[in-house]
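Our consortium's second objective concerns turning raw sequence data into structural hypotheses that experimental partners can test. To show how far this objective has progressed, the report includes one record in full. It was chosen at random from the queue rather than selected for favorable results. The single chain below, 126 residues long, was entered without modification.
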Amino acid sequence: MTLRTERVRVQIRREIATLLERGEVKDPRLTGVVSISDVEVSRDLSYATVYFSILGAGASAEAMEDAGAALNHAAGFIRSRLARRLKIRQIPILRFVKDNSFEYGSQIDRLLQSLHIPPVEEKDKT
């Protein structure tokens, strides 16, 4: 990843998070706190995949699907807001994808806890 794509990636992530935090994206399907976890930008800066998750009590699978539909529906609006804030010639086309890394981490945690590994005894060093 070049320095320029990294810089654009960070700016897009920050600006979309700010838009969502301020409530500028108004859609009843967006329940709970929507968190932008990562953004991947194509080398030519024409496409950006935005990974999101829902934090808190409203983080059901149905809520995630609804939020994805709402964010993809609002992608044009979000892109126009980015065009006002970012100083780049072409704003990437946005695609929102739910981030499964939290679920994956929880699943690994549960698997590790189910192993019932006995604690290791420390040997006396004297």
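The partners drew two points from this record. Helices lie at 3-22, 61-73, 75-85, 101-114. Strands lie at 33-41, 47-55, 93-98. Both points have been shared with the crystallography group to help prioritize constructs.
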